[in-house]
Amino acid sequence: MKIVSEELQIKGVRTSVLEPARKRKADPYGGHRQHLFESELTQFLNTIKQGKGKHAYRNWLMLYMAYRYGLRREEIGLLRWVDVNFDQGEIYIHRLKGSKSNTHPLDGQELRKLRRLKREYPAAPFIFAGYGGKGISGKAVSKVFKAAAAAIALPEELSHPHVLRHTRGYLMVEKGYPLRIIQEWLGHKQIQHTVRYTALSAAQFRDVVD
């Protein structure tokens, strides 16, 4: 254990107090990779798309949009149909944990996907509805994610839906988007939360030659 010495002046007497050095904050992910490579993401989404069952299409579109907009699992259940402007091709994203809510563009393909989903769930006010018409819960999102992750044998540390948010940040860096654009896309209030994705990407080293 490292020891730091701090001198104190007490009633004219100089003394030394030994205190343990401050520990560095531990990596919350235990040093494991917390993003998918692009090939893994494609395989993951294709696996969900080929799923069977009543909610198969909803589940696929739900996790696709979670990746596309870098959503936390609890933010998925906040998306409502009133937040979608089909005429202008826009969607308002509600962010949590102090992040900035913002409006994102929807391309023609995404609009068609959403219209299909709305036809399948015409009475639900939430885009991704759970039981009783309420927004799908974070636990339900995790259950869907884990099932797909198990189907393609993702390791345990990559078997949670927050991986999709990290994957979005990582791949935006890989594709060369400016950090300020990535910051706004993910709703980060502080740029340092965005900068960490540069450490995950090999893009910064691709111009290095021997």
Keywords:
single chain; 210 residues; alpha+beta; hpI Integrase, Chain A; 3-stranded antiparallel sheet; two-stranded antiparallel ribbon; globular; disordered N terminus
Any overview of this molecule?
This protein is α+β, with helices and mostly antiparallel strands and 210 residues long. The protein has one domain (38-200): Orthogonal Bundle (hpI Integrase, Chain A), CATH 1.10.443.10. It is built from eight helices and five strands, in the order E-E-H-H-H-E-E-E-H-H-H-H-H. It has a three-stranded antiparallel beta sheet, with no helix packed on it. Strands 1-2 form a two-stranded antiparallel sheet. A hairpin with a 2-residue loop joins strand 1 (3-10) and strand 2 (13-20). The protein is globular. The model is unreliable at 1-11 and 15-19 (pLDDT under 50).
The helix-strand sequence is: EEHHHEEEHHHHH
Reported for the largest beta sheet, the result is: 3 strands, antiparallel
How widely separated are the two ends? 40 Å
Low-confidence stretches: 1-11, 15-19
Indicate the topology.
Blueprint: E1 3-10, E2 13-20, H1 38-49, H2 56-68, H3 73-76, E3 84-85, E4 90-93, E5 102-105, H4 108-120, H5 138-151, H6 162-174, H7 179-186, H8 192-200
Antiparallel strand pairs: 1-2, 3-4, 4-5
Helix pairs in contact: 1-2, 2-6, 6-8
Brief overview, please?
The protein is an alpha+beta fold. The protein has helices spanning 38-49, 56-68, 73-76, 108-120, 138-151, 162-174, 179-186, 192-200; strands at residues 3-10, 13-20, 84-85, 90-93, 102-105. The chain contains 8 helices and 5 strands, in the order E-E-H-H-H-E-E-E-H-H-H-H-H.
